[in-house]
Design goal:
By secondary structure, the chain is of the alpha/beta class. It contains 7 helices and 7 strands; from the N terminus they run ααβαβαββαβααββ.
């Protein structure tokens, strides 16, 4: 098994995560592709089904830009990306025509974004143990306008930690957002990992 992928879910804090992804950046695309990374396309298609393609989208935890590329292929025209790893962002910047703007940001802290600046947001493969906490869902909804949509995924590692699925259900039960899409399916088929993709709309 990969020297990186098999360690990606054991990270303990933001610094460890940033250092890990800085180190992985050079080989990330090849390794993820080798394992059939399906979630970017699944999230982008789910969001495109419910959001105007001209909407400005913030791609949170954009990494090397695989999620942004999927959004562009799905038809979105205005995509900004943020990630805590400078090396990952440097790789994302090499994807000509995908991102309007890229900036450093940590999903564990308030994002440097004006509320309402984006009509939609994504967090593809980001909200899971060792990466972004369940509270990221609250933080992203806070920066979206009413009616704004958030597409994100929870993989099986996240479902094994009760606070992650519990946060989704709590947000929906409180009426903070409505669920427009929920589908379980492939995440990284190469290692047999699946994920649930959600699109929720802020009330």
């Amino acid at each position: 098994m990969s020297s990186y992928l098999d360690k990606a879910y054991d990270l303990q804090n933001a610094k460890a995560t940033r250092d890990f992804y800085d180190d992985w950046a050079a080989s990330y695309n090849a390794e993820i592709a080798e394992n059939g990374y399906a979630t970017p396309t699944r999230c982008a298609a789910a969001l495109a089904a419910v959001v105007d393609l001209s909407a400005a989208v913030l791609d949170i935890g954009c990494g090397t830009g695989l999620s942004g590329l999927a959004l562009r292929v799905a038809g979105f025209t205005t995509i900004d990306g943020t990630d805590l790893s400078p090396e990952m962002l440097a790789r994302a910047a090499e994807r000509d025509g995908v991102y309007r703007h890229l900036f450093l940001g940590d999903a564990n802290t308030p994002l440097p974004v004006e509320p309402g600046a984006y009509a939609a947001a994504t967090a593809v493969g980001v909200i899971n143990p060792g990466h972004a906490p369940p509270e990221t869902i609250d933080a992203v909804l806070a920066i979206l306008p009413p009616g704004g949509c958030f597409a994100f995924s929870l993989n099986e590692h996240a479902f094994a930690e009760p606070p992650f699925p519990a946060k989704v259900e709590a947000v929906l039960a409180a009426g903070t957002a409505n669920c427009l899409h929920r589908a379980h399916g492939p995440h990284l088929p190469g290692i047999g990992l699946e994920a649930t993709v959600y699109v929720v709309q802020k009330s």
